[in-house]
Amino acid sequence: MHHPLASHPLFSIDALASVAEEAAKRPGDLYWDAGDLSITDKWGSVPKPDMTVREVIDRIETAGAWMVMKHIEIDPRYKKLLDEFDDFIRQIAGPEGSKLLSNTEMLIFITSPRRKTPYHFDAEVNVLTQIHGTKDIWVCDPMDRSITTEDELESYYAVTTTAGTFKPEAERKARKITLQPGDAVHIPTHGAHWLQNHDNISVSLSLNLEFPNWKYKDVYRANYYLRRMGLKPRSPGQSAIVDRSKAATIGCVRQVRKLMGR
Fold first, then answer.
1. Cα separation of 120 and 109, whole Å?
2. DSSP assignment string, 93-152
3. In the chain, fewer beta carbons within 10 Å around the N or the C end?
4. pLDDT digit string (tens) for 214-230?
């Protein structure tokens, strides 16, 4: 897809430096690290640099850093853009598909030259939008179980979001796309992917929507525990009745834990 945001003043480095400082005040809404990563590394495998947010951005040309700012839509200026994106995606999804999508959010990534983003997959429906700089992205078929296994999906939802493990055949099977300013690409839910920035500072915008818990999250959580009991559970999508029963059970467990926590 293509978009008109590449020259938008809200996405200049100076504007984003202020956004990052605001995000740092909200627990969990700012993450950064610096170091030479490979595509096989896991999130959190390099230490956070001993620098302030502003120092990281000021040195982004040479810091080897990767920074993500979450929930940028808290700022009403960005919320307006997010609402326009949300309307666009819902038009594509249609009335029935739109009912399954919620919790639209905006993330911004600032990346140093040549920095890699390791192999991983996500639960969200994601449109990655390139604002400044160029980068390559490799995206795998989310339904290819030789790349993203059932065990990895179950562990992702029940244990850790770093459950995905790079496999050599992924590079051969993945679709490679070069993103330039004005380009955007859809990364489907569970589609394993990794990125390589070019010789430039990159600014990318990730626009995400979520499926309801009963579609994947709670079904895969239930399957994780059933498999630990020695059973062979059905994958999501094979039986709507079975899926809803699993999701309802996990929902009840969640509610009991909340009550016990009180």
1. 16
2. HHHHHHHT-EEEEEEEEEE-TT-EEEEE--SSEEEEEEEES-EEEEE--TT-TTTS-HHH
3. C
4. 999 999 999 999 999 99
Tokens linked to 141: 């078929």
What is the chain's alpha carbon radius of gyration, rounded to the nearest angstrom?
A: 19
Give the residue from 242, 257, 248 showing the smallest Cα distance to 218. 248
> What are 36-86's pLDDT values in tens digits?
889 998 877 777 778 888 899 999 999 999 999 999 999 999 999 999 999
Q: How many CB atoms lie within 10 A of CB 121?
A: 23
What 3-state DSSP class applies to 154?
helix
Nearest CA to 202 among 105, 126, 130?
130
Contact 99, 161 (CB under 8 A): no
Q: CB neighbours of 185 closer than 8 A, spacing ≥ 6? A: 1, 127, 128, 137, 139, 177, 179
pLDDT at site 42: 85
What the block records as the tokens of 66 is 């990767």
**Cα distance between residue 93 and residue 40, in whole Å:** 33
Tally of CA atoms within 13 A in the half-sphere of 17 that contains its CB: 11
Q: Yes or no: say if 251 and 222 are a contact pair by the CB < 8 Å rule.
A: no
